[in-house]
Design goal:
Length: about 120
């Protein structure tokens, strides 16, 4: 037979279990939505003319000059000029996939470049 103490302990255990599950779900949600701090490279703005390429960092499609763009695999002088012309005519890149809008850059080339470039608005 269940005593009053057993019933209280069982209720407390259930309440504690529910609180733990809620906390776990909340923490998972917060971890998914947590915004990582910007790197020094990302803190630069489009109008910041002092930006320069840092070796080992992704190349910013919105700020890189022709010579920097040519450091990318399969990007020669003509393609670098097309990238610069695209961002001049269409405005700053908003996402990396826009590279595929440029003649000569298809899915295969994009797959090679996507981890080597970044887009900082």
């Amino acid at each position: 037979m269940e005593t009053k103490t057993d019933r209280i302990l069982r209720i407390l255990f259930l309440v504690l279990a529910v609180l733990m599950l809620l906390s776990w779900g909340f923490l998972r949600y917060k971890m998914k939505t947590q915004i990582e701090p910007l790197t020094e490279l990302e803190k630069k703005t489009v109008t910041d003319t002092s930006w320069s390429y840092v070796e080992g960092e992704p190349i910013d499609l919105n700020r890189a000059d022709k010579e920097t763009l040519m450091l990318l695999p399969d990007v020669g002088e003509a393609t670098a000029e097309k990238i610069i012309a695209y961002r001049t005519e269409a405005g700053a890149f908003t996402y990396k996939e826009e590279l595929m809008n440029i003649s000569g850059i298809g899915e295969k080339t994009y797959e090679e470049l996507k981890d080597l470039v970044t887009v900082i608005p």
